[in-house]
Amino acid sequence: MRLTRRPDAAALYECKIAHARTAPVRNVFAYRTYQWYVDLDDLPRLPRWVAPLAGFRAADHLGGAGRPGGARHPGRAPSAGASIRRNVDAYLAGHGIDLGGGTITMLTHARVLGYVFNPLTLFWCHGRDGRLACVIAEVHNTYHQRHCYLLRTDERGRGGADKQFYVSPFYPVAGRYRMTVPEPGERLALAIVLEQPGHPPFVATVRGRRQPATATALLRAALRHPWSTAAVTGRIHWQGIKLYARGLRPQPRPRHLPEEGVQ
């Protein structure tokens, strides 16, 4: 059973996520999970029996539903995906970018049993001619804050941005990200590298293989990775406890000022 009107509008990636920190203490770990890749104009509509396993809410991405000033996607009737679409369009408008109705695709965790935490969500934003205009990297931390990095990537999906957001409590808000974020195809291959003066880089990678988003595939993924979104939060806290026990101490957390278009 397909979950969207178009066969290519949604996919699942069962993936391996790896983190490597080499200093001041070495900490390398990896885990498996699954993520959704969707078109914001054709979000999945799930049968009732699997609906608790995947929810897509505007409040989870950039801002809340119905925020004033969000432009409705021209020529399309309102749908379950319109609110997230409006949030992204409004954010882009604040940076002088008008896609003219082009496609926006998103890689993310969906809500599972009513809960979601997304360390990183990616949006690939295309112009009306189909060309990639930019990529948005939306980052959440465990302090209920979010920040977006607007990336102008090259033909291999490479871009960069100065770090402006407190994520791991053991890293200060300093340095620069090098991101390799090509739009997913049959394979998913992402890399985020944080470089800071005088320190070895922190590296995170995501690797996965595409499969059609069907109700059966979703159920199988959910059985292999029970309550995957809560598991993400649990792993983050567990790694923090281990690092604290090994002598690392949190860096001061600066006040976070919300960006224009990001609530």
Describe the overall structure.
The structure is a single chain. The protein has 263 residues and is an alpha+beta fold. It has helices at residues 82-94, 215-224, 228-245; strands spanning 10-21, 27-39, 104-108, 120-126, 132-140, 146-151, 158-162, 176-180, 187-196, 199-212. Helix content is 16%, strand content 33%. It has 3 helices and 10 strands, in the order E-E-H-E-E-E-E-E-E-E-E-H-H. A 10-stranded antiparallel β-sheet has the order 6-5-4-3-2-1-10-9-8-7. Strand 5 (132-140) and strand 6 (146-151) form a beta hairpin.
Quick summary:
This protein has helices at 82-94, 215-224, 228-245; strands at 10-21, 27-39, 104-108, 120-126, 132-140, 146-151, 158-162, 176-180, 187-196, 199-212. 32% of the residues are buried.
